[in-house]
Write a structure and sequence with these properties.
There is one protein chain. The protein is mostly beta strands. It has a domain of 88 residues: Jelly Rolls. It contains one helix and nine strands; from the N terminus they run H-E-E-E-E-E-E-E-E-E. The strands form two sheets. It has a five-stranded antiparallel sheet with strand order 1-2-9-4-7. A four-stranded antiparallel sheet has the order 3-8-5-6, with no helix packed on it. Strand 5 and strand 6 form a beta hairpin. It is globular, with a radius of gyration of 15 Å. 16% of the residues are buried.
């Protein structure tokens, strides 16, 4: 990937995961790319790493104090903190997830996410019956 000094970096294209039997990713490199993109200045950025009919994996980065407002998905989710510390609120509970923490939520649970410090996490969404073509 090349960039000139005044040009925004371009995301390198990913081939569709369904095109082959495997996909290997360097999460450190993917996170560095998220931090270089202009969207990072807004306090958060995200990128879909894997997209199958019944499974999606998203790498998300949030600056300290940034949040993702309350929302829900029809699939089951897991949130795995890679760096920093995030807080997830769901069903009247608050979950503190430091780096290495993992939280799973059942489908349809309304939740929000807040970064307590600069953070990165993997969001995995699984839909039963291969119905993963819904918008998030």
């Amino acid at each position: 990937m090349s960039e000139t000094p005044n040009e925004a970096p371009q995301r390198r294209p990913h081939s569709k995961p369904a095109a082959g039997p495997y996909l290997e990713l360097d999460l450190g490199r993917e996170l560095e790319e998220l931090h270089r993109e202009p969207e990072w200045k807004t306090g958060h950025n995200a990128k879909t790493l894997l997209k199958f009919d019944n499974l999606r994996v998203v790498l998300a980065a949030l600056k300290a104090g940034s949040s993702i407002p309350p929302h829900q998905t029809e699939g089951r989710i897991s949130i795995h903190t890679l760096q920093g510390r995030i807080q997830v609120r769901a069903e009247g509970r608050t979950f503190n997830l430091p780096a290495g923490g993992l939280l799973a939520l059942d489908q349809g649970l309304r939740h929000d996410v807040e970064a307590l410090e600069d953070s990165a996490f993997l969001l995995t969404i699984a839909w039963p019956g291969g119905d993963g073509n819904r918008d998030m």
